[in-house]
Specification:
Catalytic activity (chains A, B): a 1,2-diacyl-sn-glycero-3-phosphate + CTP + H(+) = a CDP-1,2-diacyl-sn-glycerol + diphosphate
Strand order of the largest sheet of chain A: 1-2
Largest sheet of chain A: 2 strands, antiparallel
Number of strands of chain A: 6
Oligomer: homodimer
Low-confidence stretches of chain A: 1-54, 373-410
Protein name (chains A, B): Phosphatidate cytidylyltransferase
GO cellular component, one term (chains A, B): endoplasmic reticulum membrane
Structural class of chain A: mainly alpha
Mean pLDDT of chain A: 74
Function (chains A, B): Catalyzes the conversion of phosphatidic acid (PA) to CDP-diacylglycerol (CDP-DAG), an essential intermediate in the synthesis of phosphatidylglycerol, cardiolipin and phosphatidylinositol.
Keywords (chains A, B): Lipid biosynthesis, Lipid metabolism, Membrane, Nucleotidyltransferase, Phospholipid biosynthesis, Phospholipid metabolism, Transferase, Transmembrane, Transmembrane helix
Shape of chain A: globular
Radius of gyration of chain A: 24 Å
Number of helices of chain A: 18
Number of domains of chain A: 2
Helix content of chain A: 55-70%
Order of helices and strands of chain A: HHHHHHHHHHHEEHHEEEHEHHHH
Strand content of chain A: 5-15%
Distance between the termini of chain A: 27 Å
């Protein structure tokens, strides 16, 4: 979501992300009370990664050596994106279980990252119990959400086993009891010296849970409705990301928003149209296969997930009459397409118009807490920050910036 | 939940709640970085209410003038509690709609209070848009939750009206769209100078929503299952509150927890046993009336809520055989009681054992953010802080410290 940047060097970005010189000189005793929670350089103990002038991966160096940094960036992005897309398709090929594992892994990784930021921001390294407690809460909330989903899907096969029946019957009670244990431990761990800090971290943990767990839970629920409800939305987001970058790269002139200085209106608008078109195509391609279209159902006989069914109405070809003024253009009076393709237009519109705000939010967050990433691309002037995030973060951007909204509409 | 205090004067509490003298002298330049977010006296701009030596309400003064402050406190508490209990019964008499309004009013008031604390803590008075945005989010989340509940209950009567049908069909989508508008406004309102502050307030708002709205939503859902699921749990909590105070008042010796210095083990244990006994009685009394026992159902014919039904199994008298060793004590071999009374034991146990942690949490929160309450009882040495909260806060303590867990078990 953060890909349609103007071709500017990193200096501007770095200046904005870091503290500006005139502000630096005013810290210390002159800091007014009001500024304390705003501009305090709280992560000064985290060392900056020294900017390297060229951190192109070793393998690519000989090939890319003759290019300007602008085009070098282009090629690195391209190769990087293709690798990730191939990986994505490989995971799809592996089946729904693999996708669930992927979503869960991303969720856990995101949680870990955000909690770490909290620890750094509040310098709460020596807080009693807290790291353990955060993970305990993550476990509880996941137990609750996965239980809710799984109970529906395994309900039939479980009727024989008494323990499982008990777990399902009292699932909410058990989850809540586990959460309460954590809550009580938190209260007991309150130490006078750290009261406020402990409450801050408690809040931080809960907001993190809200962001990561609820979203991945919704994504997984979608996935059970049929893999297409997972794959098409994510493809649309990836497509928007790439298209916006391409349009920004070739035509970008007009800055879009101060928060993300490299994004342009050209990228935003070009991305929008291309996403709608590609989304329409993706929908057509994926809607043809039962493997993608059918709800993921657990069959207790074969003890595995099956994706076989009579496809629902929206995945069967319908004939639509073309409006009169479009008939000369298409050369015919009717077209056949899947109703799901009309869905895809809504999804694309959403991904292109609202999705970027998820990116802006992340961008603002990064600046607010001055997050630095230790990846191999760090500091390369030709490569924008968003691409310097590790693969997993990129995937999670794709997933989370849209996850919630893309519930099946039927 | 904060009522079983030892009979000590307020001096100790005030010393603990406020800053200790030796800490005071170390502020300023000696403050280490680590302490900044912990002990910073952030609400110094909120003036302390000058402690008055006697703030007994005018009406009661002539009656209570001859008593020691210990007993004066006793009588004020007694009168206060009886007034509130009468008020509570009056509201029950007014019917389910009134109770829903009560819960909603408490929710809004709590939200307002906690948001105000956030604004004071972060000194975010001049943040663009934020107060408006917080209330907008409250509206969205309530729209979502109330819609979810109401859609179930009004579903039948609504089938005629097309607009309502549309609202129900796309309820989640509409709610999410509303939320997203708020989200986008937040992102657009981000100002460089305030980034971090704005994200703090965003998090604060969401945690507040989590605490207030989800709980009141669950309380209302319980209420629809039958008013007894609302009344008995709350009565149990009120009972535990009062009993723990009484036991603490007469027998309190051993301090329970540092966080709430006036609570005693005697109050905790005595309160527990009395709550189980009284809860058992409450359950017996309320289970006899259809008015309390029947699910609250909206009938589209009379256009009102009805509470008439054939009571479910757990609200009908059953015969239980008494264990042999208890037979001499009770003088008979069988007893008749409602299965709901057995439920009540679980509820009482929960209210007495886990509930207080809700109180400790609130107590810690109060100290962490040094909240001062401007009620007429403020500063009276004989009256503990928890009672100085206004009626609404007291009710909300009762409601929220247990709301979530007390879902019907059937």
């Amino acid at each position: 979501m953060t890909a349609y940047y103007r071709q500017t060097d990193m200096a501007e970005l770095r200046r904005r992300g870091g503290r500006e010189p005139e502000q630096d000189s005013s810290t210390g005793k002159e800091t007014t009370r009001e500024d304390k929670y705003v501009d305090d350089d709280i992560d000064s103990d985290i060392r900056d990664v020294p900017p390297s002038s060229d951190s192109t991966p070793e393998v690519l160096k000989p090939v890319l050596s003759g290019l300007s940094s602008r085009w070098k960036n282009w090629w690195i992005r391209g190769i990087f994106s293709l690798t990730m897309i191939s990986l994505f398709f490989f995971l799809i090929y592996m089946g729904p279980v693999m996708l669930i594992l992927l979503v869960s892994a991303i969720q856990v990784k995101c949680f870990q990252e955000i909690i770490s930021i909290g620890h750094r921001v509040y310098r709460s390294f020596e807080l009693p119990w807290f790291r353990t407690l955060s993970w305990y809460f993550l476990l509880c909330v996941n137990y609750f959400f996965y239980g809710e989903t799984l109970a529906d899907y395994f309900a039939t096969s479980v009727q024989r086993e008494e323990i499982l029946q008990f777990l399902i019957r009292y699932h909410r009670f058990i989850s809540f009891a586990f959460y309460l244990i954590g809550f009580c431990i938190f209260v007991l761990s309150l130490v006078k010296k750290h009261y406020r800090l402990q409450f801050y971290m408690f809040g931080w943990t809960h907001v993190t849970l809200l962001i990561t767990v609820t979203q991945s839970h919704l994504v997984i629920q979608n996935l059970f409705e049929g893999m297409i409800w997972f794959i098409v939305p994510i493809s649309i987001v990836i497509c928007n990301d790439i298209m916006a970058y391409l349009f920004g790269f070739f035509f970008g002139r007009t800055p879009l928003i101060k928060l993300s200085p490299k994004k342009t209106w050209e990228g935003f608008i070009g991305g929008f149209f291309m996403t709608v078109i590609f989304g329409f195509l993706f929908a057509y391609i994926f809607a043809q296969f039962q493997y993608f279209v059918c709800p993921v159902e657990y069959s207790s006989e074969t003890n595995s997930f099956s994706t076989k069914c009579k496809p629902s109405e929206i995945f069967r070809l319908h004939y639509y009459s073309v409006p009169a003024y479009l008939q000369p253009l298409l050369g015919r009076g009717t077209v056949s397409m899947y109703p799901f393709q009309i869905h895809s237009i809504a999804l694309s519109t959403f991904a292109s118009l609202i999705g970027p705000f998820g990116g802006f939010f992340a961008s603002g967050f990064k600046r607010a807490f001055k997050i630095k990433f230790n990846t191999w691309m760090q500091g390369n002037p030709g490569i924008n920050t968003s691409l310097t995030l590790p693969v997993i973060t990129r995937f999670s951007c794709w997933m989370f910036s849209h996850g919630t909204a893309l519930c099946p509409v039927n």
